[in-house]
Amino acid sequence: xxxxYEYVPHRLLRRRVRDIASGTEGVLxxxxxxxxxxxxIERWVELAYVRGASGREFTTAVANIEAAAASGxx
Length: 74
Prior knowledge:
- By secondary structure, this protein is mostly beta strands.
- The chain has strands at 5-7, 16-19, 25-35, 44-52, 57-61, 65-67.
- It has a single domain, classed as SH3 type barrels.
- Helices cover 0% and strands 47% of the residues.
- Strands 1, 2, 3, 4, 5 and 6 form a six-stranded antiparallel beta sheet that branches.
- Strand 3 (25-35) and strand 4 (44-52) form a beta hairpin.
- It starts with a strand and ends in a 7-residue tail after the last strand.
- The mean pLDDT is 90.
């Protein structure tokens, strides 16, 4: 079996993003092509790791990520 993950470049890395599925905003920390299978058959998914306001990171599908609207906060 090959590596379980690989980092993928993304234009929004280190920028404020919004998870369309949940509406949660945070900073895109990484995009990872990850093997999520627990069987012998590989299943690769591109996941976005987003750090929310609490400092805790969550994952979502890369397709769910969009640039967050500009706000008055730095």
